[in-house]
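Handout, section 3.2

Students often ask what a structure token actually looks like in practice. Rather than define it abstractly, here is a full record for Cytochrome c. The first block is the sequence as you would receive it.
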Amino acid sequence: MPYNKSIIAASLMSIISSPVFAGDLSEGARLHQEGNCLSCHQTRPYSKIKTPNFAKLEARVNGCSNQLNLGWFEDEVSAVSHYLDATYYHFSK
Ligand code: HEC
């Protein structure tokens, strides 16, 4: 039999460990916490009305993090955007 359990397990692991599924979300949550984003956004809730798609979300995360001089790299902006998407916007689901 060409397909055995270890091949199936290995391909499952690569899905689970892909950035959007694992590291990205917890890293995004950590950065979002560290950036103190809720100091403004607690009273200014994230809203799909202002940000209707993922590209715009990423642009706003980039804008705010630049404004705050957090020095986030592109992958950090992306991680926070995925975290906000999974938590508030749900564009991907
Ligand atoms: C000093 C206040 C302040 C802080 C801190 C701040 N923001 Fe913002 N943010 C704003 C303002 C003002 C807007 C403009 C849109 C609005 O009126 O909500 C905005 C808009 C946004 C939006 C789009 C809003 C929406 O309703 O969809 C996102 C996403 C966002 N910020 C992410 C972040 C992230 C991530 C951080 C932390 C790195 C952050 N912001 C920190 C003030 C802030």
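Discussion prompt for tutorial groups: Residues 17 and 42 are 31 Å apart (CA to CA). How would you have guessed this from the sequence alone?
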